[in-house]
Amino acid sequence: MNAPARHVVVLGGTGFVGRSLVRRLLDDGRRVTVLSRGPGPDPAAYRAKRALLTRDASLLEGDVHDVDFLRAVLDDADAVVNLVGILNEKGDSGEGFEQVFTELTRSLLTAMHDNHVRRLLQMSALNAGLGDSHYLQARGHAEREVRASRLNWTIFQPSVIAGPGDGLFCRFDRLLKRAPVLPVGRAEARFQPVWIGDVVEAFARAIDDPASVHQTYPLVGPEVLTLAGIIRLTARARGRHRLVLALPEALGKLQADVGELLPGKPISRDNWRSLQLDSISREDGLARLGIEATAVAERVEEILTAS
Ligand SMILES: NC(=O)c1ccc[n+]([C@@H]2O[C@H](COP(=O)([O-])OP(=O)(O)OC[C@H]3O[C@@H](n4cnc5c(N)ncnc54)[C@H](OP(=O)(O)O)[C@@H]3O)[C@@H](O)[C@H]2O)c1
Q: Which stretches are transmembrane (predicted)?
């Protein structure tokens, strides 16, 4: 890594993390191209998502799973950021996760290799490769592909990411709006929510930093919060009086079995399997990058202003 990355290609850049990171990369004086699958079956949702992405980035729509498409668009890239991710797959076989994490990463590595693009920032997750959830297993397989490559890779493993428009506090806020009582499986599962600004800072610092090459950074916040605690903080920030009902193991599992069959899978069997592991880390990857982790619990009202 001799020169700073001037042109950065971001996969999954239209999402929650992507739109903040893209803005930051542009502010740092880089050219940014976001790759996206385009509208798909829900054009309205895509339009809404695209409206949140700064117009200063180039947006290229195409089949991000296709190695030829990737080869063509990585032509003059200096670095690639892979933020593609899903929390649920169709069915419960693990194939969907393998496709989105392992196979897409493999195609990306091939395209980068063929174009002599050497710098990759790969988003992963805490507990990748651990436990028996298909999501975490596929995450682990993707990490293994990246580590086996000859690229200058850096892997980031966040706990849940918190910030305006997130899928954590904002999601629970939407549920609590309607439900006076919220039954929750694995209510005692522990997380260390990490602030979106810190995640973006980590990527921004690492991209040109040779010391971050071949490193894996767990990204966690300073507070360990249970799932029930996160929901209670959400209710309190809105002044809502809600009952969080911690379900015993068997009922929590049953809730996931039922959720698996509902449209949009509000909770799935695989989510349940992931929840068996606490999403916490003793190692502080932010500190290793010189970033002091932001406390999230005191920022919940700010987070909810966007929802
Ligand atoms: N948010 C968190 O708490 C958290 C925690 C740990 C890890 N992560 C990981 O961090 C990354 C970014 O998270 P995020 O919260 O920004 O996610 P997000 O908002 O869901 O964005 C992910 C992006 O991935 C693309 N994508 C989704 N399904 C795809 C598919 N089947 N094939 C190809 N591309 C697909 C989408 O882009 P297009 O629709 O434009 O194609 C989407 O905008 C993900 O890998 C996520 O798993 C997030």
A: none
Provide the residue ranges of all domains of the chain, joining segments of one domain with +.
Answer: 7-159+194-220+282-289
By most ligand atoms within 8 Å of CB, the mutation choice from 86, 155, 220 for ligand 1 is 86
Quick: pLDDT tens for 268-288.
999 999 999 999 999 999 999
Report which ligand 1 atom has the smallest distance to the Cα of 166.
Answer: 1
Query: How much distance in Å is there from the Cα of 152 to the middle of ligand 1?
Result: 22
CB atoms within 10 A of CB 91: 11
CATH class of 7-159+194-220+282-289: alpha beta
Q: What pLDDT, on a 0 to 100 scale, did the predictor assign at position 66?
A: 98
